[in-house]
Amino acid sequence: FASNIAMLNASLCANPSLVNRTLVKAHGLSNSAARCDLFQIPSINFGDTVSVCDGGSYVQQKEAVQKQLSNSCRRHCHRRADGCAGCASVQKLGEFRAYQLDDVVDESLLRAEKAVKMDVEGHEYKVLLGAERFFTQGNPPRAVYAEVFQLGAHRSSFFAKLKEWGYEIDL
After folding, report:
1. Max CA-CA distance within the chain?
2. Tens of pLDDT along 31-46?
3. How many CB atoms lie within 10 A of CB 36?
């Protein structure tokens, strides 16, 4: 989303020493090229957006996302003035194209020193599946920072893949 790019650019303006050492690639990432939708319950802002990408199980994914977001809202609704009244309203925020990281990375980035921060709304494991070259060739990232609370059934596979590539896990 354009607002994310604007926030990243504002952060770089506030930290000019990072400008020449930071590369922002405005791509959604997954394990294959896909069109994805981003969902959220607009009455809350806990960063609880979830992406669903096209494919054979799109409808099932979307239903699971709606349930996940509603459950998250209900866990926090005691803090809200209207109680849980706004928790049933899951809305699509927008859409984006996702690509495999290995398909959008260039040779200079493979050779560069880097650390990676992943916050891809539950797609972290799928990003790894499309990024083996990025994580194993050239100069692999020194560190990987990732949000893992939305990984669900893929959590152990995510950690296993990083360990397979030589990373130590520190939670």
Report:
1. 53
2. 989 888 877 766 655 5
3. 21
